[in-house]
């Protein structure tokens, strides 16, 4: 199992423990970012995380239906965050790897995937 720190821009979202890897990595997250606060200075990011948890939980319990598709449509208001190249993880060797916007799940689980388009942007944090 590998450990990472998850960031969006300079915001430390949480500590990840990779528990599964295939085309996407999955694992557990310990949040450092309080996404439960409505009045957060990063309220859009917090709202996206809450909506991601809500929609992934709904999909796990019910599956794809009109309600699920409506939740996905609501995520369009966060496209600037979802499509941002500013998501990255840092490993224990302080290697920074850009990732796509992760999918947040209930029970502090998360799924992420390396941003293969920006793969050449791997660097060390100094």
Mean pLDDT: 87
Q: Work out the number of β strands.
A: 8
Instruction: Classify the beta-strand content into a percent band.
Output: 25-35%
Radius of gyration: 14 Å
Measured as a percent range, the helix fraction is 25-40%
Tally of DSSP helical segments = 3
Shape: globular
Quickly count the domains: 1
Please write the string of helix (H) and strand (E) elements. Answer: EEEHHHEEEEE
Unreliable residue runs:
122-126
Protein name: Immunity protein 22
What features would you describe in this structure?
The structure is a single chain. With 126 residues, this protein is α+β, with helices and mostly antiparallel strands. The protein has helices at residues 43-61, 66-74, 79-82; strands spanning 3-8, 11-21, 25-31, 87-91, 95-98, 103-105, 109-112, 123-124.
Write out key terms for the chains shown:
single chain, 126 residues, alpha+beta, globular, disordered C terminus, Immunity protein 22
Task: Record the SSE blueprint.
Layout (H helix, E strand, L loop, with lengths): L2 E6 L2 E11 L3 E7 L11 H19 L4 H9 L4 H4 L4 E5 L3 E4 L4 E3 L3 E4 L10 E2 L2
Antiparallel strand pairs: 1-2, 1-4, 2-3, 3-7, 4-5, 5-8, 6-7
Helix pairs in contact: 1-2
Task: Provide a concise account of the structure shown.
The chain is an alpha+beta fold and 126 residues long.
């Amino acid at each position: 199992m590998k450990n990472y720190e998850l960031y969006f821009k300079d915001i430390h979202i949480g500590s990840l423990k990779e528990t599964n890897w295939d085309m996407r990595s999955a694992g557990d997250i310990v949040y450092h970012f309080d996404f439960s606060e409505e009045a957060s200075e990063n309220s859009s990011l917090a709202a996206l995380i809450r909506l991601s948890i809500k929609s992934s939980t709904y999909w796990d319990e019910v599956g794809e239906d009109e309600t699920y598709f409506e939740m996905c449509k609501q995520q369009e208001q966060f496209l600037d965050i979802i499509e941002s190249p500013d998501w990255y993880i840092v490993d224990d060797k302080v290697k920074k790897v850009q990732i796509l916007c992760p999918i947040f799940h209930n029970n502090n689980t998360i799924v992420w995937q390396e941003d293969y388009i920006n793969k050449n942007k791997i660097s060390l944090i100094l």
